[in-house]
Design brief:
79 residues; alpha+beta; 43% helix; globular
């Protein structure tokens, strides 16, 4: 099973290959000591930044929210 860091990196790579086909400028995942510290989504007319602390108790709910976002984002990219 993929760790979250591996999943995020793989997802980021797949989106970068299709980036010219949608309205997003880029998606960037920053890594600090092997953990995802910040997920940054930059859109042409919006800047959304979601930060999490390593070992944060809210990490589980953040991953659920991020998973839902990935599903919705994939739908938008594929349409």
């Amino acid at each position: 099973m993929f760790s979250f860091v591996e999943f995020a990196a793989k997802f980021h790579h797949s989106i970068v290959k299709r980036i010219s086909q949608n309205s997003f400028d880029f998606i960037k995942v920053e890594f600090v000591t092997g953990l995802v510290e910040t997920f940054i989504l930059v859109e042409k007319f919006a800047y959304i930044r979601i930060s999490i602390a390593a070992g944060c108790k809210k990490l589980k709910s953040f991953l659920h929210i991020l998973g839902s976002f990935f599903i919705n984002f994939n739908f938008l990219v594929d349409v």
